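Section 5: illustrative case.
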């Protein structure tokens, strides 16, 4: 199955890097949560579905969606999950190979950003949460993550469990060799690539792997 791309409504800088990242996806299904539809359209993508209570969607966006015959599913404001979470659930119904979440970070709402990061713990499908200058994935035990590093990127490993055991890395300036990282501790923050390929793996626990691109 192709990847799925979900847009939420957090403010987003349309950097060339992010545009190229999204353009590199091979015919993903596109679902927008509420005013995430505006962001999707700004990147030249027509959503396959827009879902939400529509409390923040501009009239001009709704008109574009109408002209393009995009299905819009209007939800009540009173509900037990955010529009973003419900859009993710809808995207997962097609069993995509990967899930990319855009517009889930930033903006004035710290609570929304934190909740969206923690949503990764509920998703079994490989998922990338990204904005203009950051990407993050949730690394599960015994599933090594390897990528080609940008020379200037900053890499952080943030435990989302009391202890993440057996953390090992390759290609980083400050390596870890089968070591623990502890919830609330900053030991894994702000590392740097020293090789073209970087690998992170763990033996137990949930580990958030973040990549920051300063340029």
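Designed sequence:
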């Amino acid at each position: 199955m192709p990847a799925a791309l979900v847009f939420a409504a957090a403010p987003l800088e349309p950097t060339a890097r992010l545009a190229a990242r999204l353009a590199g996806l091979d015919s993903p299904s596109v679902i927008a949560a509420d005013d995430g539809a505006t962001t999707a359209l700004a990147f030249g993508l027509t959503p396959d579905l827009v879902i939400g209570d529509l409390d923040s969607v501009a009239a001009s966006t709704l008109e574009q969606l109408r002209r393009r015959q995009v299905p819009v599913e209007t939800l009540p404001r009173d509900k037990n999950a955010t529009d973003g979470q419900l859009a993710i659930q809808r995207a997962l119904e097609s069993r995509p190979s990967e899930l990319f979440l855009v517009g889930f970070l930033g903006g004035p709402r710290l609570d929304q950003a934190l909740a969206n990061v923690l949503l990764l713990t509920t998703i079994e499908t490989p998922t990338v949460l990204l904005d203009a200058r950051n990407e993050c994935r949730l690394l599960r035990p015994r599933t090594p993550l390897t990528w080609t590093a940008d020379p200037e990127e900053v890499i952080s490993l943030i435990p989302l469990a009391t202890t993440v055991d057996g953390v090992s890395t390759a290609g980083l300036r400050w390596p870890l060799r089968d070591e623990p990282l502890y919830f609330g501790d900053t030991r894994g923050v702000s590392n740097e690539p020293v090789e073209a390929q970087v690998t992170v793996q763990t033996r137990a626990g949930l580990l958030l792997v973040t990549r920051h691109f300063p340029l």
